[in-house]
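Box 3.1. Reading complex inputs
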Amino acid sequence: MRKNSTTKPAFGIVLRMWESKALCLLFVLVLAVCTGCSKGDNSNKGGEDNKETTQLNAGVGGKGNGRFLESEVVLPGKTGRILTLAKLKDGSLEVVTEGKEEKSYYILKSNDQGKHWEEIPIKGVPKTHIPYAAVSPDGSVAMIPYAKKSSLEIYFVDAKRKTNQFGLQLPGNEEKNQIRQAAYDKKGTLFARDLKGSLLAVDLKKGTCKVVFDTNGIQVNYFGIVGNEMLAVHDKGIQIFNMEKKDVPESEIVLDDLIKKDKKLASSSLDSGAPMVFSEGTEDGGIVFANGNGLFHFNRGGSVTEQLVDASLTSLGSGGIVLLDLVTVDQNNFWVAANDNGEYKLLQYSYDSNAASVPNKEITVYALDESSFLRKVVNMFQKQHPDTYVKLEFGLSDDDGVTLEDALSVLSTNILADKGPDVLILDGLPVDSYIKKGILSDISDVVEEIDESDGLLPKIKESSKNNGKIYAFPVRFLLSVIEGDSETIKSAGSLSGLAERAVKLKKGSDQGVIPESKGTLTLLRDLYYADSASWMTEDNTIDKKALTDYLSSAKQIYDVDSNGKEHDFHTKMGSGTIDGVKVGTLTDSELIEGNSKMSMGTLVDFWSLQNMVSSWQLTKSDYGLLNHEKVKSYIPYLSVGVTESGNKEAAKEFLKILLGKKANNSPQNGFPSNKAAFDLLCKEKMDSKAVKDDGSISFSTEDEKNYNFNMVNLTKQQIDQFTTFVESLEKPAMDNRIILDIVLEQGDKLLLGEQNLKDTVDTILKKVNLYLAENN
Amino acid sequence: MAVFALLAVSPVIFLLAGTFMGNQEIIECIAPVFLDGEGYAFWKVIPQYPTFCNVVGLLLDSPEFFIMFWNSAKISTFILAGQLIFGMPAAWGMARYCFRGKKLIYTIYIVMMMMPFQVTMLSEYLVLDWLKLIDTSAAVIFPGMFSTFSVFIMYRFFCGIPESILDAARIDGAGELQIFLKVGIPLGASGIISSLVLSFLECFSMIEQPMTFLKTKSLWPLSLFLPEIHSGNAGFSMCASFVALLPAIFVFLIGQDYLEQGIAASAMKE
Amino acid sequence: MANRTKRDRIGWLFVLPSLAGVMIFYLVPFVDVVRRSFRQAVGGGFAGLENYRQVLLNKAFILAIGNTVRFVSICLPLLLLLSLGVALLLQNQKRYREVMKSAYLVPLAIPATSVVLLWQLLFDNNGFLNGIVSLFHIESRDWMNDGTAFGVLVFSYIWKNLGYDVVLWLSGLLGIPVSIYEAAKVDGAGPINTFFYITIPNIKPVAFTIVILSFLNSFKVFREAYLVAGNYPHESIYLLQHVFNNWFSELSIDKMAAGSVLLCTVVALLVLLLQRSWDKSGV
């Protein structure tokens, strides 16, 4: 205790000194915290509210059994495009459509809720493209074409089906104004929204429009009319106007929150349709609305919305669906007119009290990267198996930096705890490790089945075999290609040949050879995918010579143009999807502009193939495969596996749809391994919709130069050449993200001149060997 | 000596200066490292164009920061409280009494203290999951409450109290619990506080546990707040790092003397 | 005597709540780890000693152990000696002592994320250190990815923990009664003798605490290494936790479990040895 006695006085003084300092700090902190508090609370509260606002509830009536099931209302055969859907005063339903032979329009009327339709051709309307139509409560229709210099002719078809023409002048005389949306209210007044976001009441007889709703300067993105109220959706919420008193908008916290939470619901950039559509609620008032999350019911003044339909179980969640109208047929029946990925449909949601309110089986599908293709397949599966709920999980979906490590550790924990997913998309995951640990199931039975019915690209099937079994199969794939003149194509038989060609092209010219957009990481990645399939040796290490050749060619190519010693801002992982759609790295724009003499990268899908071929009208180029001289490889996309510990039966059912013809008949998101789908797409490209639609691509550069070319069909010769290319691909490129990251990190230093070749190769080998040694 | 002290404190000065620099200036300084500018990175101890915009931006405009701040505060408080309630008696018990298995328990405690988190990560996850605690703050708080590290520190100190004082109290008729509460704790105050300070520092810089056991971002503590430095928010992250530093230093300054006292006394009487 | 045993049983009661918690949150998971070390990673089939065999023969594991041992055997003595030296110097400097102590302790309070930011700025190819070094015309290098990475880690460890240990030593030193020194002086002992025969024996107890705590902190250095250099850093700083982490990502939980059990056994033995030697030297 001696120490205490000597230090006590000193201690006291010191304490006092520190205490005052401590008090100051405390004061500052408290101040800081207080200022932050209110903000913090706000956002916290927002979060809480969100949880409360949606409850899954089985329609009107309560929980337990019963749920709204989706079905499609069959429309007469001539129906091509749906313009609008409405319920008339007398309860009958009316649809305005455009026939399959375009530019002819029809009114479809049904008195028995869609069982029978009367199809009335609209006469007196010119054969032009008419984007919008509105149906008034008595059945008359206003057909609204595009305006020229803010004035247009509206074709009004009355209840007796006689067509009259009315001229209309939009506000903003000389400027270009358009009507973007139009609808009638209960009293027969036509309302419209123009380009500037104003809500107008249209007087057809006078030919003028008046701004009747005082939005206080806020631009309206789209609107909906529900009973006596006009719902004007803007960026921060929804203004609710009463038709009687049009000047003071009300709002509902719940609805405003909807918009605030999901920016996609605030506005849409499309010509027609909206992210959300509204209609009257059930008998006791209220609003029903449909959006990409489902169908909901909301009572004015309430604090919650009731979810009637879960989008993920229906077409509403299929992604790429554009909503046109929502109609409350009756308390247990709602209709949605929509454009589902190009197909116009009338979807009906009717309450089935016998259906289980929540599906009793569940499977989880997991992928690291967001994928719209997967979403579509999940939707297809749900509709065929309404008793199974599919939970789609994306490991890296958040924009707030969940790192790859985090996602992997969460996934690993789940798998080890036997709570792993049933279907696993293996892109970017350590597949070999998983196979060794026995996590994946043998899916050869499903693969054989698809091969028998539709056919699978044979070499892809072969290269997926692992000791006779198949644990992972690529549903789609990409190719590595080179685009340029014929000499360049010939030289691309190997990376070194390509490098020499690039050097040669540069001599005596100060124009660019390699596209400027190829930063270090992009270039390395492209060449990696072309070359890496041959790198693994027998004893599971990386072949030093192959790695050295790859790196030295990459350096040579990069140095040709000295594309600035700049870091590439592509993320290291480069999952290559934007909004869930897989993107390739082959760009034609620089060839077109004349800024480069060649272009290389991944060719991602049929759409890009057609684009590329069409661009040759301007560049007169050709293309070929870019590969290692000994091995031609493809890049697997959506490599799927089924886990041993999951619900294998349901998972395999999912797999069948995932690999099937219907799902794979998409010109985007990779090329299909499914041969039937592949052939179909080839055929389509020889006589494509894009060309029929007079599609064209145009873009302009910073220095105001414009480029434009029309889409062309592929010739049979080109299709044959492409098919030959595809059929020659024999091995998958290495898709191990750990190895890729290491190569990119070190290769980046090499290209930027921070490290020499020998050191780069050595460092890469050391790190990769460390990785491989861990898992020996 | 002084040089080293300067070295030790320099990071704090660095961050402080950074807080008041506008983004432009910071970019100038650190561009070489993060944005690949030419030459070498450097730093200005006193900013040329001091500005409060980062401070303002942080304090008034970023709710996430405060949510995480309060999470850290909440988690730390509960853990420290738990350590007092559970750990203190345990340290006392092991220090003053001899019972069978004491040596064993003591050794177990030390070994558990040493294990790196990765070792028990999965198993702890499974246990927490079985207790339905995953993704709640409790998943981080409960294991922290029973940390053997704090028991170890407090134990060393409790050992240092002379038995004679306790015997005197016993003669006076005090029960064991009373002895603990009225004699042990007051005499051990500095040891207890030093354990609390060290544990607090530990809690505030926890990374692996919250990352593994807490899924929802809104539950994350401040220690996981590591925004990427890019031209947009360089100043902001400087300021954030600095403010994140403050509570630790603050607690530290208060507890420092107790810290030394406690460890000194414990060291002496072994 | 009955009193004594009754009292001792009460000791149990004091410990019980903590023990219960420790069991649930630390021991039970550990038992699970031991169990898994004898089983396959997934599927739970019995694997006997296969995992141990694989781990002991695993090159990555061996590298990591080597590095960890190297690190600890260099850092620990270095830190102990340095801090003791500083403490001895400060022992007699009443004036600066308080300020110095506070300054040295600051690094302990800085959160890991800020430290990482600093390290990046300091040690990168274009970082501060290279900037300073180039002024002296010494070649600049990438400190974290070179042979020097190990040195950087040692520096980081010492920087963080020096103050802590200095304070501990100081309290130990200051606790030695002045009278003993005076007595020694009277007996004619020189400074060296004083040091070896008086100072050292009297600070042995503090030393035990310091060794244990410094050893504990040496594991924590993984955090900084990981945040700066990632999962596959330069081979000289590839530590045990890196292996464990990576094994986990690859679902090699069996190897991880076996490795952990081995680690635990070694640590337990060391601790026991330490305790034994401390007890023997009579405290």
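In summary: Chain B is about 75% helix and 0% strand.
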